Amino acid sequence: MPALGCSTLVTCSFPAVPVRSPADPAVIRDGVVAWEGERLTYAGPRAGWDGPVDEDLAGRAIVPGFVDCHTHLPFFGWRDDEYEARLRGVPYRELHGEGGIPRSARMLAGASDEEVLEFCRPLVSEMLRHGTTALELKTGYGLSVEAELRHARLARRLAEEIPQTASVTLLACHAVPAGMDREDWVEAVCDELIPAAAKEGLADAVDVYVEDIAFTLADLERVAAAAAGAGLPLRVHADQLGASGATEAAVRLRARSADHLNHVSDEGVQALAGGRTAAVLLPASTLMLRAQPPPVDRLVAGGVALALATDCNPGTSPVASIPEAVAIGCALYGLAPLEALAAVTLNPAWVLGLEDRLGSLEPGKRADFVILDAEEFRRVPYRPGHDPVVRTFIGGEPSG
User: What tens digit of pLDDT does each residue of 353-383 get?
Assistant: First the structure.
């Protein structure tokens, strides 16, 4: 039975999930992690361990593997010229159409399946090197029933070949297809796309982008009903570019998460505080768009369950590193380092429905953990741009 000793161990185990703010995981000094096969058998103080230790990691911390619960992989091609345009003052809304989501859809359509996978493999490997042991993959760059199904199949293929655990979210309502009425597309999503994806086992959840350039609250209601009919959990892109009431609707519809929240209202904060919908914050997107940050102080004060994710996508957040997202989140949002750690481990595992086997270091869970190059997790946000990961283990095996 392998066992590692470390100067600091943070298991991120909590009595209930999602973990409400302020989430302050306990720090164990002089800890041991042990496993048999793929499963953890012990994670706690050395004083409670009666077996041998194969390796002592002096000056190192061990934390759970990072869980990235909001990415837009798989995609094909970058849009760095749009970033430059935004820096020159062109608003994101003006780029939407010729650029933005429709442009990524065109690039995806113009690439073969193998070209898409070849483009994405290095990104997933980069995530692994930076400690991501589980992640979400989204569709949303198809913009037709058949193209969305192709996108979901590509996501499943990618999930099957990578070492990380990966779930697939059908972002059915991401943008309105060119030449199609919004209502007609929502009808096709509800009547054709969601049932087909569910029948083929292509999706683990359904997402909707609620925004004045995208979809309405009424559309969200329809898609939520279709997702529930297919037995799929709901996710919601909410209140990113402006206040829409999407967060309140997400809580009422029992969505697993409301994501972005840059313009969430006081009523939305109160709804999150009283419900079980997690707030997924995307600090790299906030930085790259130079957007108004979400009211994180009010979310924390309200006891809202927080998650942090990269939002890895070709247009507004070309970031694949959870440590980078943590560094930006702590700097922009004022999160304490250990709060941020809970927000990239157990809470995002809950968002993806994986909390029973991932997200914390507890006996019976999979032995997914990260060895850091410092004793304290606070070194991670303190050194943005630095890769703090010495080794990543998935199922007890070193990866990357």
Answer: 999 999 999 999 999 999 999 999 999 999 9
Fold: same for 3-64+359-399 and 67-351: no
Mean pLDDT of 202-225: 97
Mapped onto helix, strand or coil, the DSSP state of residue 212 is coil
- The CA angle 291-296-298, to the nearest 5 degrees, is 130
pLDDT the model gives residue 90 = 87
Kindly report, residue by residue over 252-264, the tens digit of the pLDDT.
Answer: 999 999 999 999 9
Distance CA 126, CA 330 (A): 22
Residue 400: pLDDT over 90: no
Give the Å distances, CA to CA, from 69 to 7, 66, 216, 271, 393.
29, 10, 23, 21, 19
User: Quick one: which H or E segment has residue 147?
Assistant: helix 145-161
Count the alpha carbons within 13 Å of 8 in the hemisphere toward its beta carbon.
Answer: 20
* Best CATH choice for the domain 3-64+359-399 from the list 1.10.760.10, 1.10.8.10, 2.30.40.10, 2.60.40.1180: 2.30.40.10
- Convert the pLDDT of each residue in 130-160 to its tens digit: 999 999 999 999 999 999 999 999 999 999 9
| Structural domain spans, the chain | 3-64+359-399, 67-351
Q: Helix, strand, coil % (nearest 5) of the chain?
A: 35, 25, 40
**DSSP per-residue letters across 166-188:** EEEEEEEESSPPTTS-HHHHHHH
Check whether domain 67-351 has CATH 3.20.20.140, yes or no: yes
pLDDT value for 209: 98
